Each structure stands twice: as structure tokens, then as C-alpha cells.
Amino acid sequence: MSESDRMPKIDRSKLKQTDIDFIKFVEKQNLDRVRKLQTLRRRNLFTVSILGTAVLGIYGYSIWAVRQENFLDDFEIPTTVTDPAK
């Protein structure tokens, strides 16, 4: 942080007790909000990872199933058409 981004120092002796109480109240609200957002973010990341794994699993299984179908086609004996006139 640069010096211009920092909050200016406040002389506590000039503040009233109600002002100090309000600042503490706002800080507590901010900390609670941050905790809630961190928990929400953690849950969202967990949900995204579970859903992503499920999607990749379904995609992988579908590719594997198509390969199995093509693989089994190689072992089938081709049927020949016999001419009934002979």
C-alpha cells in the first residue's frame, strides 16, 4: 500500500466515546461480513469442484463407451450375401 492509500491517523483524545463505539461497531460488522463471504467462497469452490468432476466423469465415460462400441465392431464376422440363383 502506498502512503496515499492509508487512512489518516486520528487522535483518539479528540473523539467522543460514541464515535469510538460506532467505529468498533462498524469494524465488527465488516469482520462478520468478511467471514460470511469467505465461508460462501469456500462452499462455492467445493461445489464447483464436485460439479466439474461429475461433468468430466460423464464426458470420460461417454468417450470410453463409444470406444468400446467401435472396438467390439472389429471382432464381428462380416456377413456375406450369398446369391440364391447359384
How would you describe this protein?
With 86 residues, the protein is mainly alpha-helical. Helix content is 66%, strand content 0%. The protein is built from one helix and no strands. It is rod-shaped, with a radius of gyration of 34 Å. The N and C termini lie far apart (95 Å).
Q: What are the low-pLDDT stretches, counting only 5+ consecutive residues below 50?
A: none
- What structural class should be given to the helix and strand makeup? mainly alpha
Query: How far apart lie the N and C ends?
Result: 95 Å
- Main pleated-sheet profile: none
How many beta-strand segments?
Answer: 0
Report the principal-axis shape: rod-shaped
Order of helices and strands: H
Count of separate DSSP helical elements: 1
Helix fraction bin: 55-70%
Q: What structural keywords apply?
A:
86 residues, mainly alpha, 1 helix
Quick overview:
With 86 residues, the chain is mainly alpha-helical. It has one helix spanning 17-73.
Write the SSE topology.
Layout: H1 17-73
